[in-house]
Amino acid sequence: MTTTDPTGHRGPSPARDDVHEVGALPGTRIEWVIAAARASGLLLALRAAEVAGRAAPPPPLDSGRALRAWARVVRPVLDRSGCTTVGVGLDDLRIVAAAAAALGSALCRSRAGGTADPVVEVLRADAAAQQVTAEDLVAQLARVHGVLTAAGPGSAAEIWWAGATPRG
Fold first, then answer.
1. Which of 32, 39, 129, 165 is surrounded by the fewest CB atoms within 10 Å?
2. What H or E segment, with its residue span, contains residue 101?
3. Residue 111 belongs to a domain
4. Which domain holds residue 92?
């Protein structure tokens, strides 16, 4: 996050316990836009299915909570406006992590048990529309979360490049 001083110049935000400062990021802006778009598409599809009564996403995917948290996480990252650091809310990062975990668990249960899960069906349909696998979409959520919460730039780069190529 940035603030403006009385003269109108941008400066760092005051330190807050509920905000994680994110510095330089690996990858290009185009790569970040693609990663954000893939995950946004998935979260929008899940929300649309929930509203239409076709799926009942588990927390924190219910009621659009993960979608709103995702928007708050990626907006400052994509719109850095020349800032070297941006602040991302820790609660939003936790929701994104929990959303990725919930979707990953749903995929695992579906594969292990072979039972139909409307959430997984939405996930697979959106993945097919994006020409990637369902696992790749879940990985994008986890990848962005991992980069934004990495201990340093080296760790962030390792996480970013590890998930750079969709396997589907």
1. 165
2. helix 90-113
3. yes
4. 27-162
Provide the domain count of the chain. Answer: 1
22 is a domain residue: no
pTM, whole model, 2 decimals?
0.82
How many CA atoms lie less than 13 Å away from 71 in the CB half-sphere?
7
Is residue 6 assigned to a domain?
A: no
pLDDT tens digits along 105-134: 999 999 898 788 999 999 999 999 999 999
Distance CA 166, CA 168 (A): 6
- pLDDT tens for each residue of 9-44: 344 444 455 787 777 788 888 898 999 999 999 999
